[in-house]
Amino acid sequence: MSNESAIGVFDSGLGGLSAVRELARLLPHENIIYFGDTGRVPYGSKSRETIRKYTAQDASFLLSHGVKAILAACGTVSSNALECIEALTDIPVFGVVEDAAREAYAASKTKRIGIIGTQATVNSGIFKRKIESIDVRATVLQCACPLFVPLVEYGFTAEGDEITRLACERYLAPFRGEVDTLVLGCTHFPILEKAISAALPGVTLINPASEAARAVAKTLFENGLLSARKGRGEIRYFVSDEPARFNAEGKIFLGKDFAIDAKKIEIDKF
Amino acid sequence: MSNESAIGVFDSGLGGLSAVRELARLLPHENIIYFGDTGRVPYGSKSRETIRKYTAQDASFLLSHGVKAILAACGTVSSNALECIEALTDIPVFGVVEDAAREAYAASKTKRIGIIGTQATVNSGIFKRKIESIDVRATVLQCACPLFVPLVEYGFTAEGDEITRLACERYLAPFRGEVDTLVLGCTHFPILEKAISAALPGVTLINPASEAARAVAKTLFENGLLSARKGRGEIRYFVSDEPARFNAEGKIFLGKDFAIDAKKIEIDKF
């Protein structure tokens, strides 16, 4: 492990690529290794125990590449299993909860904040605890929005899509008039940002992947761990299912400027 | 393996329980062992290679219990990996394609038949090939309806649910006026039967889990493999994630008369 080592990023599938995009923008000279557990996706509807087992395997894979930091770019992992990674290594470990909770608190004027995520993220209650640990008088409302993940993955993302609009209305109704800030606590949800905003006009949306990427950049800089590389860093992608669908759909999260050529690995060997 | 051995049934998750219900109705004296791969669900959006690997493990687990027949109560497995089970054993192996295809052909007057399923099932083209092997002049139209699985699993199943109604309208529009019979090629889809019927009035719906259960009963009877048990058979449930959610949501598929107390196993050891 050295300054020239890669930053490791993983997610249950595609969503964490939004953090890769943000990292590559902030730290263009860094190498990045991404793992998407596409053979076992999704995590958000699975039990805490299974999420913890999968997380330890995902982190072990990244550690086998000698990464210098790990970002769990997945709300479900960050909420249920971050300490399973910290138990494996001394390098800096980041999730998508801590910084998003702080940013949500800072952004909120009324200190009434909403959290949306997968069932596992909401069950964990971690966003609520983090915000209340900043200010015990803050009010945090939570709601699981499990259908948002398949709506993104199965292409219900066109602007004004009526099914997505209705799903947003139904899930987000409890927040209307109740919060001024909403944390998009799952890396898929920023893809539905416009539809979520339309259902909750005037509410500030917090994107945890962006906040986490900023925290990674700050920590590497402060600890003198940035690469001295001059040219653009290399991004390598690994997945646990066949790569075809990941290569094609990754563009939803990464944007058109990234070429993805993922390699398949056997994650249950880690 | 004897006449008193159990019938093995498996699925990627909950859906195959609809076949268990039908088997228990047709063959009340038989023991049944069910495995739901809830730790890796869903299969339908994963690659053929991964589906085949998981299928072989699922079947190996059932074979370790000495079952006398195996029913792959999953459209995705039946379409992509049935021969992976047949390669492991000489006992009778059933999927949910063969008999549903035959029944759909028999039920159709116009010989214009629709198929809906997961992306993997539709990609395999197996329903189309089976029906065309009965009658090369039959017309088979296919459409993947991936959102139907999460709509069932996340509870969008109330009669008249507007989101489910719109999803049915959008996915099923290509069939309107084109087919007189539709195969519900995924074990989740019969839960949405009323909404599907409302989008395609007058079209005959074929439920492959029921057809497959009938085929199992017929084969065991014809081969003298039925149990001589007098009382009700025992049904045992195994899963690869924590059982809590499976125990609770299994009732969607099994009905209220069944008590479910599933046991967790490590499927990647098989």
* Beta-strand content bin of chain A: 15-25%
Q: Structural class per helix/strand content of chain A?
A: alpha/beta
CATH structural fold name of the largest domain in chain A: Rossmann fold
CATH class of the largest domain in chain A: Alpha Beta
Q: Mean pLDDT score of chain A, rounded?
A: 96
CATH architecture of the largest domain in chain A: 3-Layer(aba) Sandwich
* pLDDT < 50 runs, ≥5 residues of chain A: none
How many runs of DSSP E, i.e. beta strands of chain A?
10
- Give the H and E element order of chain A: EHEHEHHEHEHHEHHEHEHEHE
Distance between the termini of chain A: 19 Å
The chain pair with the largest interface is: A-B, 28 and 28 residues
Please give the largest β-sheet of chain A.
Answer: 6 strands, parallel
Explain the overall architecture.
The first copy, chain A, has helices at 17-26, 48-63, 75-80, 82-86, 98-107, 119-124, 126-134, 148-153, 162-172, 193-199, 208-222, 244-254, and strands at residues 7-11, 32-36, 69-72, 93-94, 112-117, 139-144, 181-184, 204-206, 235-239, 263-264. The first copy, chain A, is of the alpha/beta class and 270 residues long. Chain A folds into two domains: 7-95 and 210-269, Rossmann fold; 98-208, Rossmann fold. A six-stranded parallel β-sheet of chain A has the order 4-3-1-2-9-10, sandwiched between helices. In chain A, strands 6-5-7-8 form a four-stranded parallel β-sheet. In chain A, α5 (98-107) packs across α11. The interface between A and B is medium-sized, with 28 and 28 residues.
